[in-house]
Design goal:
By secondary structure, this protein is of the alpha/beta class. It has three helices and seven strands; from the N terminus they run αβββββαβαβ. Helix content is about 35%, strand content about 25%.
Length: about 130
């Protein structure tokens, strides 16, 4: 039970650090502000929980930000394809995926084609001590 709670805290902390840092570097991504975890309705009729939402500087669009603190395996094309569908279904302009490892080749191809940015963030990062 302690391990599960510790893992939950690591995931939650990773998402919070990613949101904080993306907010600090928001202009690099053409964003005015980065909001936290929220639910966004999709055109399909379903709702999507996202880790963070970046509001464009011009305030006329948004991007979906997803965090995956996978420390033993790189994200695959199915993971990036799922994000690409969330972008499509919610009407988002694009997305950012945050993870500690590089993407697998298929994931790189899908992210490049769909305009999804990949940000590598060390899994031990804090708001004051980070490698982004």
């Amino acid at each position: 039970m302690v391990t599960i709670m510790a893992n939950d805290k690591l995931w939650s902390s990773y998402e919070e650090v990613a949101q904080y840092l993306l907010n600090q570097f928001s202009q690099t991504f053409d964003l005015g502000v980065v909001e936290g975890k929220q639910i966004i309705p999709g055109k399909s009729g379903t709702n999507w929980e996202i880790d963070a939402k970046g509001i464009k500087i011009s305030n006329d669009g948004f991007i979906i930000i997803e965090c995956r603190r996978y420390t033993k395996s790189r994200l695959n094309q199915e993971s990036i394809g799922a994000l690409a569908y969330r972008i499509y279904d919610t009407g988002a302009d694009s997305g950012i995926i945050v993870s500690p490892l590089s993407l697998q080749k298929g994931a790189e191809i899908v992210s490049s084609h769909e305009g999804i940015k990949h940000v590598i963030l060390d899994p031990r990062s804090t708001t004051s001590d980070y490698m982004l």
